[in-house]
User: Fold these one by one.
Assistant:
Number 1:
Amino acid sequence: MAPAADMMEAIKDTAKHPLGKSRRPDNRWGYGLVRPMEALAAL
């Protein structure tokens, strides 16, 4: 099992922001929409 820090990083890296990765994080969307299947695959 991956450490919690690795899981959080995968969730942030795979989140989909509606305005693109260059706009992350922002006050409205944060890192974007969480995509759990992509985060799991990234681990």
Number 2:
Amino acid sequence: MKPKLGSWVIVTLFFVTAFAARAQNAIGIFDGQGDIGPVKHTGSGVYDNASQQYALTGSGTNVWGTHDEFHYVWKKMKGDFILRTNITFLGKGVEEHRKVGWMVRSSLDTNAMHVSAVVHGNGLTSLQFRRKVSGVTEEKKFTLTGADIIQLERKDGRYIMSVAHKGETFVTEKLDSVDMGDDVYVGLFICSHNPNVVEKAEFNNVRIVAPAWKGLIPYRDYLGSAIEILDLETQNSRIIYQIPKSLQAPNWTQDGKSLIYNRDGKLYTFDLATNTPTAINTGVANKNNNDHVISFDGKMLAVSSGNGEHGVSLGFVVPIGGGEPKQITPIGPSYMHGWSPDGKYIVFCGSRNNEYDVYRIPSNGGPEERLTTSPGLDDGPEYSPDGKYIYFNSVRSGLMQVWRMKADGSEQTQLTHDDYNNWFPHVSPDGKWIEYITFSKDEVSPGDHPFYKHVYLRVMPVDGGPSKVVAYLYGGQGTINTPSWAPDSKHLAFVSNSNLLFPVFPIGQ
């Protein structure tokens, strides 16, 4: 006679079985996948851990009318979220209206309510939605066609679709009055638009972001952080490290083997071979903010630490491996940003008499010299690799823009002239390019660079000229406050933010 299982055993087995089934069906950052509706050919989704890319195959008659047929990789979500990816169809395709994109869905039923950010095989780009179960699908078409980057956001019950060609800024459509409730499915989908055909697509830079909550108090409350490395040729970005706290300002070492970033007032070296962080001993300078810079010879660090009266930031220098720091700015606030290539000077943003300007000071200490005198904020100074110029950002023309001047402060010239707020220009080691971070003027005032906003990372020629977007992300303060170019001038390090972390990426404490 077999013994009877106790109820606690049955319950335990149920949850173990359910977890095993979910784990088996999970794909990357998504909880599960499957075909929606009576598709003729089973679809699939595959996640490549090395590249952090997804490949989807699927068939299905259509996503339209009163019901849908497609393949779906999904995650359950509540509250606000931001969904973003780069999309590429694989192969010539059969039907011009094959579809891929993001989908938010009330259920996994074929007739469920949904809001979908869609790119068609013929380039048509549209926001599609079904307002009620078994209702007819409606559509808002973009004038932009053939979008490469697709973003779908839910904010306070409103859905916002933003799309772009690679390198360009977003264009947007908004949608109200589709109420699927708080608990929804979100994910990537593919539909062949022909039940007898299987189509394929590839997705990179796939991000599901849980943004800042209402009532978040800046500089007291923080979202999780991820350090990402961007390949400028492919514009594919990989998350190499994430924690549920604030990481800021990754700064590439001269040998290309490590990053230096700040966290909770300390600086850390992050070994790129082992993905291991190690705290740097900076002695009494133990209240470090995200303004730090490595000397061109790779031997020294200039750091900014709140050691002044009432926590005011002062400038220090310390050996890159750690040691007792030497204070070099006698007063503050002082925020260290750039070494001269010969190591003799450090340029910084300093507030004197309630006016923020660019200063330089001997790296061994000495009298400081004011280089900018225009009213308003001048910030983020950094030398070019040849030492001829100092690049900085200034609000003097209305919005925050990128400027440069000769190393003695003369010939101050504006380099960007657009309708955004542009901060923290960093010159590539080969001296050819400038990277900077861009905030929307509708979200951020010109003199501010806050946490947790929609931002672009952009690159332009070192003498000015057309800029292109190389990364679309949720970040801001701490994303690229410091020089973040790899020594090869082909990669960038930056920080993105989310209140949601995924175990498929390296997670720290």
